[in-house]
Amino acid sequence: MKKTFRIKKSNDFQAVFRRGKSVANRQFVLYTLKKEEQRHFRIGLSVSKKIGNAVKRNQIKRYIRQVFQELSDQVDPTKDYVIIARKPVSEMDYHSVKKSLEHVLKLSKNIDMKKR
């Protein structure tokens, strides 16, 4: 996933937290913020030290980025997404992470399942 698809700046994260909408399940909290002028979606990731060591946290972030890359044609391109991983994610494999992220995206109505 290209770096232009990532949220890195603190101000961008804060804007999504303040003005965005949130939806959660047991594994993830998803914040979304609509940005009309944007050509493609951006994602910001937050994986706490409570979840595991650096290797585990980086693995989880890779999984999340991969899921968004696979779902890129189904995800609304005019939005910023901030994903916060919760503790149960540390015991999940890739397919479980994908299923859980799809679930939270469906809850927030940010995924178009017709484009599968």
UniProtKB/TrEMBL annotation:
It catalyses: Endonucleolytic cleavage of RNA, removing 5'-extranucleotides from tRNA precursor. The keyword RNA-binding applies. PROSITE patterns: RIBONUCLEASE_P. It comes from the Bacteria. RNaseP catalyzes the removal of the 5'-leader sequence from pre-tRNA to produce the mature 5'-terminus. It can also cleave other RNA substrates such as 4.5S RNA. The protein component plays an auxiliary but essential role in vivo by binding to the 5'-leader sequence and broadening the substrate specificity of the ribozyme. Consists of a catalytic RNA component (M1 or rnpB) and a protein subunit. Keywords: Endonuclease, Hydrolase, Nuclease, RNA-binding, tRNA processing. Its EC number is 3.1.26.5. Belongs to the RnpA family. This is Ribonuclease P protein component. GO terms for molecular function: ribonuclease P activity. SUPFAM superfamilies: Ribosomal protein S5 domain 2-like. It is an enzyme of class 3 (hydrolase).
